[in-house]
Design a protein that fits this description.
Layout (H helix, E strand, L loop, with lengths): L1 H32 L11 H13 L3 E12 L6 E14 L5 E4 L1 H4 L4 E5 L7 E9 L4 E6 L22 E6 L7 E15 L5 E8 L11 E3 L5 E8 L10 E5 H14 L6 E2 L2 E3 L2 H6 L6 E6 L4 H5 L5 E2 L5 E2 L3 E5 L2 E2 L3 H8 L7 E8 L2 E8 L1 E2 L5
Antiparallel strand pairs: 1-2, 1-4, 2-3, 3-6, 4-5, 5-6, 7-8, 7-10, 8-9, 9-12, 10-11, 11-12, 13-22, 14-15, 15-18, 16-17, 18-19, 18-20, 20-21
Length: about 375
């Protein structure tokens, strides 16, 4: 009997110990499941700067939509419809409603709409002027929103490779996106949309994708130092090599586009040139061939000659410009950028070939808009 009681006591003790054991393990498992939530520490100064720049600038950055007319149907049953043709980014230039963007964003558009952050309304805009050679265009809102915040323009003359840069835009239609990086290089020469290279371009590793075009590239003070324009990528997406039109170029050209609708200050010699490819086809290996000399222009006054064609279609080639102030000229690109360093009224020396003989003449540059 005593042995039976002792056996029962041992069993009960074992069961009690097991409950205590498993209860303790269960409590330990629950404790293990708990996540330790840490309070966020102070942000780094780099992070705070990016946040502040986005907060202070995003209201000045807009989405730009390009609409295009297309014709469908046949003959008397034809219909004209306006369809979306593309989209990009832009930024507010002034309180009068001028919006700056890339020329290629609005190219061949029949109408344009602009949208702002936290504003569901689409604002119609009209094209004021464009400079394709620099990929710059100016739109103007037909009706202004209640609040318009012009962006802060800076300069690109004192940029340093390695300094911080930020890009705001609408990549792939995702509006109000910001990316940050650095200035990777300066003074890049990139083939532009307008048929000539754009000199002095800013290279950055900020992520720039389709839709970012026309958006601002900002420095750590929130000033515009460039306008995001293009990327180098085999896939069409950012590969860490993006380019921006320098702020100094924008600051120089935009006021003229707003005032005149085109660039009026570009110096010119008063000629039309034979297309580079055609010139090479006809065997010209150096210089640019004068196709036409404009009446009353500096070239005509200096005695330069254009190309003539006889009754049988046989061309008599005009003078071939090979240098301006001893700077070699071998393409339209060369002559465009050499002349860009001068201003209206400057006197230059033109070196040219006539009947395979090298000649020189001096002339005063005039305003290019006179011949456009």
């Amino acid at each position: 009997m005593i042995k039976s009681i002792l056996a029962i006591f041992v069993v009960l003790l074992s069961i009690n110990s097991s409950y205590a054991f498993f209860g303790k393990d269960k409590k330990t498992d629950n404790e293990k499941k708990k996540q330790i939530i840490q309070e966020r520490t102070d942000l780094l100064s780099y992070e705070k700067n990016t946040i502040d720049i986005f907060k202070n600038t995003s209201a000045s950055v807009v989405n730009v939509s390009n609409n295009r007319l297309i014709r469908s149907g046949w003959l008397f049953d034809s219909r004209t419809t306006e369809v979306p043709a593309g989209a990009g980014t832009g930024f507010v230039w002034d309180d009068k409603g001028h919006i700056i963007t890339n020329f290629h964003v609005i190219q061949r558009g029949s109408s344009f709409t602009v949208s702002f952050k936290n504003d569901p309304k689409q604002y119609e805009a009209e094209l004021v002027g464009a400079e394709p050679a620099k990929d710059i265009a100016v739109l103007k809102l037909k009706k202004l929103p209640k609040k318009l915040t012009p962006i802060s323009m800076g300069t690109s003359s004192n940029l340093v490779v390695g300094q911080k840069a930020m890009a705001i835009g609408s990549p792939f239609g995702l509006d109000q996106s910001i990316t940050s990086g650095i200035i990777s290089a300066l003074g890049r020469k990139i083939q532009g949309i307008g048929g000539v290279s754009i000199y002095g371009m800013i290279q950055t590793d900020c992520s720039i994708n389709p839709g970012n075009s026309g958006g601002p590239l900002l420095d750590s003070a929130g000033n515009v130092i460039g306008m995001n324009t293009m990327i180098f990528s085999h896939s069409g997406s950012s590969a860490g090599v993006g380019f921006a039109v320098p702020a100094d170029t924008i600051n120089r050209i935009v006021p003229e586009l707003i005032k005149y609708g085109k660039v009026m200050s570009r110096p010119y010699i008063g000629v039309a040139l034979l297309d580079d490819n055609r010139a090479r086809y006809y065997g010209f290996t150096e210089g640019v061939v004068i196709r036409e000399v404009f009446d009353g222009g500096p070239a005509e006054k200096a005695g330069l000659r254009g190309t003539k064609v006889d009754r049988r279609g046989q061309p008599y080639w005009g003078d071939v410009i090979v240098a301006i102030d001893d700077k070699p000229i071998n393409s339209y690109d060369d002559i465009y950028h050499v002349l860009e360093k001068y201003k209206k009224g400057d006197r230059v020396e033109i070196t040219y070939l006539r009947d395979d003989k090298k000649k020189k003449v001096k002339l005063n540059l005039t305003n290019s808009a006179q011949f456009e």
